[in-house]
Write a structure and sequence with these properties.
Layout lengths: L1 H25 L7 E5 L2 E7 L14 E6 L2 E6 L5 E11 L4 E8 L2 E9 L5 E8 L2 E9 L5 E8 L2 E2 L1 E6 L5 E7 L2 E6 L8 H6 L10
Length: 206
Amino acid sequence: MKFIYITMLQLCVLFLQADAQSMKSYFSVDNYSHTVNYDHYKAVFYVQRPEIGLGNIKSDRKYAWYSGNQICYTQGGYSGKLLNGDYNEFYDTKGLKTQGIFEMGLKSGRWKSWGEDGILDSIVNYSSGKPNGRFEKYDQEGVLLERGKYHDGQLNGKLEKRINADSIQVIRYKKGKVMAYQPSKAVKITRWLKSIFKKDKKPKVK
């Protein structure tokens, strides 16, 4: 009988330790968003959880990390807690400034930025900290100015730049190097391109 009581007591202790560890993880400050205030805007973000390992540090990547109530960026290393998860910047007016995702300190997926008036400024896709995929840039009126594609951090393929209402500039890249160039005066905007580089303003973000 005594043996049964001892066994039950040991099991209770194990359960309590597990619950304590679970509660500690649940209430850990690392599971909550952090905020850093700058002039005219603030950044709201998450950092890596203690149980998540890092893996190999890549010397050619710039890592974002948090320490001393500051966000720092360092190529090939870090000293603090890596940003991990949703990342948002807000103007003092509460409008969105920047929105994206960090994966263990590296930018990932689609990143967007806006001006203070809510007009879309740019869209850039990232993979493992490098621009990768399509990107677009807009002027202060929300008109598409430039679009192209990155591959592993370098321009690759056709880059289209709006020169004025009637013409664009087309430059072809391969691994960051210019392969072909067409002056803007030789490139007339077709009906199809007009639908892409339309003059209509982009809707403001509510």
